[in-house]
Design a protein that fits this description.
Elements: H1 6-21, H2 27-30, H3 44-49, H4 69-105, H5 125-139, H6 149-163, H7 166-173, H8 179-196, H9 205-221, H10 226-241, H11 245-256, H12 260-270, H13 275-299, H14 310-331, H15 357-362, E1 374-384, E2 394-401, E3 406-408, E4 412-413, E5 418-427, E6 434-440, E7 451-458, E8 469-472, E9 485-492, E10 498-507, E11 516-526, E12 529-535, E13 544-547, E14 552-555, E15 567-573, E16 576-582, H16 585-599, H17 625-638, H18 642-646, H19 654-670, H20 682-695, H21 699-715, H22 722-748, H23 757-771, H24 775-781, H25 804-826, H26 828-831, H27 840-851, H28 862-888, H29 900-925, H30 933-956, H31 966-978, H32 986-1019, H33 1031-1050, H34 1055-1089, H35 1101-1120, H36 1130-1166, H37 1173-1186, H38 1196-1216, H39 1220-1243, H40 1252-1271, H41 1276-1279, H42 1282-1302, H43 1315-1321
Antiparallel strand pairs: 1-5, 1-9, 2-3, 2-4, 2-6, 6-7, 8-9, 10-11, 10-16, 11-12, 12-13, 14-15, 15-16
Helix pairs in contact: 1-12, 4-11, 4-20, 5-6, 6-8, 8-9, 11-19, 12-17, 13-14, 13-16, 19-20, 19-21, 21-22, 21-25, 22-23, 22-25, 22-27, 25-27, 25-28, 28-29, 28-30, 29-30, 29-31, 30-32, 31-32, 32-33, 32-34, 33-34, 33-35, 34-35, 34-36, 35-36, 36-38, 36-39, 38-40, 39-40, 39-42, 40-42
């Protein structure tokens, strides 16, 4: 209960002070609505009414001078009309608030749903900016969060793509962006990145993901303490789930603009804390609704229905809905009330039958039906007057309730007889007898029992005082202490089903036939059954009872001839009148109020005197709630609230009132801190459900108003959940189409069997299938399903009647909804940015399909739906590209002089954005369009065709033979070829047609350029080593490889043209390498011809470089000339053969050069042939000279020079030539040729004995040659050839001959192998 607070009194005093300051302003214009018959005066109304507005002025304030009286009066008139409108609006809201308060105070139809989806906190503009700043600080390295490069790149991309997006800003403005949305987008954003990272042993991808999300949360949260945030979120989540009554009152005060003191006045005056008064109010309302239904049927004032036959059904629906509410109220436990009453403990009735109240009235109550159970607390405090007993004598007390057990206190001394002992009893007697006795222990030996000193018998009632009081005890005659008093407190609790009790005088026709004072109890047997019972002392059952159904209670004047009683009232029914009288006026008010609640009568009794004063005399004070409630009623009347409290709810248009409260509630909900998307909170749902049920608001009207309000918000940019729209639309469609179809069926009677009962079931299931997507939301709405009078499964709320207004409004809303949905699909990138809210786009498409249905039975043809969506996506392509080009600022360049390079740069930037848009569509929206994937492909092609116009324009202005546009092709082609749907599509083929001539032209020019570079390069070639070859060859192979890599990186999508390009490039590479090989061969031969033929010859670097060119050419030909895709390596084989042949020729030429040098050495030895003049002369000269001087060994210089030449040549070739195989082949051929030349020279001198000098030189040459080539890896099979054996044998024989004839003239030179010789050679 809300007791009147000091703030309330202060507010009242404030009102009185304001009224004192503004004597001319009527009270209604200040703070309260006008009383009936009152109206603001023309002079003071405008000024006084200004008190309603924050900026209003007092009536006495000076006004600016007006230019003319007519203009001033017109302004005053407008201002007066505005104030009157505001006052009427305020009155309406106050009246509406009274109805809402009663729904909150005593709900019996609805409860707060606990299974609704929890809404997330939404992000405001300021929060979005804060989040941006936090992420920017992280990217600038201003935070303590440690992160690797991959995570930083992911955050950078998220910041650029999501946080800085204008679509996100628009989403925040619409109220549909929550912290969870931004987190989910980041999670989806990084999943692909993490999956593409290389595997790391011991670190799973899931661990990386969770680590990244933890870092994201740390950045998002910033410096806030996570514990505080968690506590705040927990509290907000709890308030989102469930609300107390006080919170609901406060919420609807804010929604309806009700001031706190107004709420307090209304709360107290309506007695919202009194469940009995609220239950009585409901009974009166339901009775009024039944009477209204009968009046409508009698006067035939029906709403306009789509069928005349629905009128009778309408009356039945009204009555059955009231009967259902009666059943719900009847199922409420009687004991429910007071502090025990909680909203969430409400049990809903499952009794769907129609209760016939007439039959119930015929079942009269018996005395045994009325059962009361009372709890008594008896507390014995102390006794006074014990003077005759010795101070140490033991005394004690006993207590009992008539018919119950006896309890005893502890023992005490007579000098201090105090206890404070409490005894608890339970009794069914309305007037129980409580006996308390005082005993003292007997001291006599023969005494059998203790001595009773005194007793007291009390007859408490629930109205008796609760505090302790002194009572005089009845003592025996022989007791010396005649003035014994005992202090007792007896508390008798009132059971919940006892609504009032007390002594009354009564006389009636059928009961209480004698005018006599009796103890009466008003008992509530059930929610709809009350009985007035009279009781005698010590009796559990009532002596007589009167069932109050159908009686009307009212105040009455004193009746002549009835002695006893001062304040009269009566209960009247057809054929019966019972007159009651109380001894006190306040008691009469209490009784009349209690019986007024019990009878459920529409007439409200008014006391003869409005002002009641509290009677503060001792024990005759009744309960204070009646006078206080009257005091509250007086205060409410003083402030002009009585008309709202006493107004009959049945006289109001609750359809329009509910429309108002639902609209204001939706505005409040959309402006709170949650991203609700149009869904009400559980508390709001509960109040609206209860209002509809209690006041008979039709379900279709409720959802039509809801749809209209949601559509208005959605059209103004608010984010509304399409699933919510879908549910309300399905409800209305099922109501309008289903019931109309059913009536046609009833009237026609000749419908096909498919439209019969089975058709109704299918319609119902169709509606349910659409709406069961969110069972949480369904349970919220299906509150009236049990009010259905007959088992029609397709009626969403059990209502079979359809008004013309409902049908017309539905058709209007259906068209508005269709336009909205098509617009949202057209702007899907902006209405559902990054696929948020989750599942919204998919639900929108599903709802569009539902809206396009003509009724709830016939499914719309898929082609029709497809046509609508195709049209939307075609427009979406134009919208998306227009906004994208505006973002890229391409349009700014129109009409300005822009260089081709700048235009191409802008086009490439635009292409990147186009690809980004298509990728986002695939990532975030493709799933929603899964059923229409072909339309999304068409949308992408349309989108690309718009880009193609700008791309073609940019390429047309590019100068000829420039290749800066190829990156554009590569960018687009790499994206298109990876997309299964767009690969080789319309735009892709256009792109190929556009760039194919450029590619061909580029290859032609490159071929000509490479050919010219080969010609010029070899003319100026120095054959200095460069990498693996010469400068010209390196340049050639690099160009060929770069050209092929470039063409390969184009990834030409059309197979035939791509194959042609590859074939052409391979052929070009083959021709170029062939030219290179031939030019190198010619240069090799020319180089050899210019070198020395003596042993002074050293293999030049250029010769090795030429060999390396061949090696490199062979290696490059494998890469540059071989065809893939399983074809013959024709170009590769051809050039390989050429290279091999050329290498052979080069080796032959080089060997021939080496042989020529050896032949020169042998020619020098030929001068020593036996029988020649030169030989004789040399022999004579040496012999003569040797007698006088030491003559050096002849012929060793020649041998040493040759050996040095061979070794140097071997080392140079081994070191400089890159191909081992060619070296081995060269050395084999060189060794073989050298041995053949020596063998031939010896064969020519078969008949001659070798000169000693010839022998020594040959032995040295042959031995050293053999050893050196063996060290170079020449195989033994080659070394020990027959030629070598022939030479060896000849020289061995010659050596032996010389040893005999010369006598040691060889000076240690021999064909035998020895270590000494090896050391000497070294």
């Amino acid at each position: 209960m809300l007791d009147p607070s000091s703030s309330e009194e202060e507010s009242e005093e404030l009102v009185e002070e304001e009224s004192g300051k503004e004597p001319l302003a009527p009270a209604a214009a200040r703070l309260s609505p006008s009383r009936p018959g009152e109206s603001p005066g023309p002079g003071g109304g405008g000024g006084g009414g200004g008190g309603l507005q924050p900026g209003g002025r007092a009536g006495g304030a000076a006004r600016p001078a007006s230019p003319s009286p007519s203009v001033a009066s017109e302004k005053e008139k407008d201002e007066l009309e505005r104030l009157q409108r505001e006052e009427e609006e305020r009155k309406r809201k106050l009246q509406l608030y009274v109805f809402v308060m009663r729904c909150i105070a005593y709900p019996f139809n609805a409860k707060q749903p606990t299974d609704m989806a929890r809404r997330q906190q939404k992000i405001s503009k300021q929060q979005l900016q804060t989040i941006k700043d936090r992420f920017q600080a992280f990217l600038n390295g201003e935070t303590q969060i440690v992160a690797d490069e991959a995570f930083i790149n992911a955050v950078q991309s998220y910041y650029e793509v999501f946080l800085k997006s204008d679509r996100v800003a628009r989403m925040v403005q619409s109220g549909g962006c929550s912290a969870n949305d931004s987190r989910e987008v980041f999670k989806k954003h990084i999943e692909k990145r993490v999956r593409s990272l290389p595997e790391i042993d011991g670190l799973s991808k899931e661990t990386v993901l969770s680590s990244w999300m933890a870092k994201f949360d740390a950045i998002y949260r910033g410096e806030e303490d996570p514990r505080k945030q968690q506590a705040r979120m927990t509290a907000s989540a709890a308030s989102e789930l469930i609300l107390s009554k006080e919170q609901l009152y406060e919420m609807f005060q804010n929604i309806l603009g009700i001031k706190k003191f107004e709420h307090q006045l209304l709360y107290n005056a309506c007695q919202l804390d009194n469940p009995d008064e609220q239950a009585a109010q409901i009974r009166r309302e339901l009775d009024g609704r039944l009477q209204m239904a009968e009046q409508i049927a009698k006067e035939r004032k029906f709403p306009k229905f789509v069928s005349k036959e629905m009128e009778n059904m309408y009356i039945e629906e009204l009555k059955s809905s009231v009967n259902l509410l009666m059943a719900n109220l009847e199922s409420m436990p009687v004991s429910k009330g007071g502090s025990e009453f909680k909203l969430q403990k409400l049990k809903r009735s499952h009794n769907t039958s129609i209760i016939d109240m007439g039959e119930e009235n015929e079942n009269q109550l018996s005395k045994s039906d009325v059962v009361l159970s009372f709890s008594l607390e008896v507390v014995i405090m102390e006794v006074q007057g014990l003077k005759s007993l010795a101070p140490n004598r033991i005394v004690y007390c006993t207590m009992e309730v008539e018919g119950g057990e006896k309890l005893q206190t502890d023992q005490a001394e007579a000098s201090k007889p105090t206890w404070g002992t409490q005894g608890d009893f339970t009794t069914t007697h309305a007037l129980p007898a409580v006996k308390v006795k005082l005993f003292t222990e007997s001291t006599g030996v023969l005494a059998l029992e203790d001595k009773e000193l005194g007793r007291v018998v009390l007859h408490p009632t629930p109205n008796s005082p609760k505090q302790s009081e002194w009572h005089k005890m009845t003592v025996s005659k022989n007791c010396p202490d005649q003035d014994l008093k005992i202090k007792l407190a007896v508390r008798m609790d009132k059971p919940q089903n006892m609504k009032h009790s007390g002594y009354l005088w009564a006389i009636g026709k059928n009961v209480w036939k004698r005018w006599k004072k009796r103890f009466f109890v008003l008992v509530q047997v059930s929610q709809y059954t009350f009985a007035m019972c009279s009781y005698r002392e010590k009796k559990a059952e009532p002596q007589e009872l009167l069932q109050l159904d159908g009686y009307t209670v009212d105040y009455t004047d004193p009746q002549p001839g009835l002695e006893g009683g001062r304040a009269f009232f009566n209960a009247v029914k057809e054929g019966d009148t019972v007159i009651f009288a109380s001894d006190d006026e306040q008691d009469r008010i209490l009784w009349v109020q209690a019986m007024y609640r019990a009878t459920g009568q529409s007439h409200k009794p008014v006391p003869p005197t409005q002002v009641q004063k509290l009677n503060a005399k001792g024990g005759n004070v009744p309960q204070l709630d009646a006078p206080i409630s009257q005091f509250y009623a007086d205060r409410a009347q003083k402030h002009g609230m009585d008309e709202f409290i006493s107004s009959n709810p049945c006289n109001f248009d609750h359809a329009s009132l509910f429309e108002m409260v639902q609209r204001l509630t939706l505005d409040h909900r959309l402006n709170d801190s949650y991203s609700c998307l149009g869904w009400f909170s559980p508390g709001q749902v509960f109040v609206l459900d209860e209002y509809c049920a209690r006041n008979g608001v039709r379900g279709c009207h409720r959802h039509l108003c809801y749809l209209r309000d949601l559509l208005e918000r959605a059209e103004n940019g608010a984010m509304i959940d399409p699933t919510l729209l879908h549910y309300s639309f399905a409800f209305c469609a099922s109501h309008v189409h289903g019931n109309s179809h059913h009536m046609a069926e009833l009237l026609g009677g000749s419908q096909p069997s498919t439209d019969g009962e089975g058709g109704k079931v299918s319609q119902s299931s169709a509606a349910e299938v659409e709406t069961k997507k969110d069972s949480k939301k369904e349970s919220k709405k299906r509150k009236d399903s049990k009010s259905q009078p007959n088992p029609e499964p397709k009626r969403p709320d059990g209502i079979g009647t359809v008004t013309v207004d409902e049908k017309e409004r539905f058709e209007e809303i259906k068209e508005r909804l269709r336009v909205l949905l098509e617009n949202q699909i057209t702007h899907f990138r902006y209405c559902f940015p990054f696929g948020r809210p989750e599942g919204a786009l998919k639900a929108t498409l599903s709802l569009l399909e539902r809206v396009l249905m003509k009724d709830i039975v016939t499914p719309v043809p898929q082609e029709e739906v497809k046509t609508v969506i195709r049209k939307c996506l075609e427009q979406a392509a134009l919208v998306n590209y227009t906004r994208l080009s505006e973002y890229a600022k391409i349009e700014e360049n129109v009409g300005r002089l822009v260089t081709p390079a700048k235009k191409l740069e802008d086009t490439i930037r635009l292409a990147e954005l186009v690809i980004e848009v298509l990728q986002q569509n695939e990532e975030h929206h493709a799933e929603a369009f899964a059923w229409w994937s072909d339309l999304m492909v068409e949308h992408a092609e349309t989108f690309l065709s718009l880009f193609a116009v700008d791309m073609d324009a940019a390429l047309e202005v590019q100068p000829p033979d420039t290749w800066d546009s190829f990156p554009l092709f590569q960018l687009l082609n790499d994206f298109l070829r990876s997309d299964y749907n767009l690969c080789n599509g319309k735009f892709h083929k256009h792109l190929q047609d556009l760039f194919a001539p450029l590619v061909v032209r580029y290859v032609d020019l490159m071929e000509s350029s490479i050919a010219q570079s080969i010609h010029r390069g070899f003319e100026r070639e120095s054959w200095e080593p460069v990498n693996n070859g010469s400068g010209t060859s390196e340049d050639l192979f690099w160009k060929l490889d770069a050209l092929q890599t470039f063409i390969r990186d184009l990834h030409w999508p059309e197979e035939e043209f791509g194959k042609h390009l590859e074939q052409r490039l391979k052929l070009m590479a083959s021709d170029m390498i062939e030219s290179c090989v031939k030019r190198t061969r010619i240069a090799f031969e020319v180089k050899l011809q210019k070198t020395s033929r003596s042993t002074d010859f050293r293999v030049p670097q250029s010769i090795c470089t030429m060999f390396n060119v061949m090696v490199d050419a062979k290696a490059q030909s494998t890469k540059l000339c071989s065809m893939e895709m399983g074809q013959e390596h024709q170009y590769h084989s051809k050039i390989d053969e050429l290279i091999e042949e050329t290498v052979k020729e080069m080796i032959t030429l080089l060997v021939a050069k080496f042989v020529t040098i050896l032949e020169g050495v042998l020619a020098k030895l030929s001068r020593y042939d036996e029988g020649t003049l030169f030989s004789s002369f040399l022999s004579f000269t040496v012999k003569a000279a040797s007698k006088y001087v030491d003559v050096p060994k002849p012929g060793m210089d020649v041998a040493d020079a040759y050996v040095t030449f061979v070794r140097h040549s071997q080392d140079v070739l081994r070191d400089k030539v890159n191909e081992e195989m060619y070296i081995e082949r060269l050395f084999d051929q060189w060794y073989t040729s050298s041995m053949n030349v020596v063998c031939t020279w010896l064969t020519d001198r078969m008949d001659l004995q070798l000169h000693i000098y010839q022998l020594k030189t040959l032995i040295r040459i042959v031995k050293k040659t053999y050893r050196d080539f063996r060290l170079q890896g020449v195989l033994d099979s080659t070394l020990n050839s027959k030629t070598y054996e022939t030479i060896r044998n000849r020289l061995t024989v010659e050596e032996a001959t010389a040893s005999v004839s010369e006598g040691g003239g060889l000076q240690g030179i021999t064909m035998k192998d020895s270590d000494e010789e090896d050391e000497e050679d070294d």
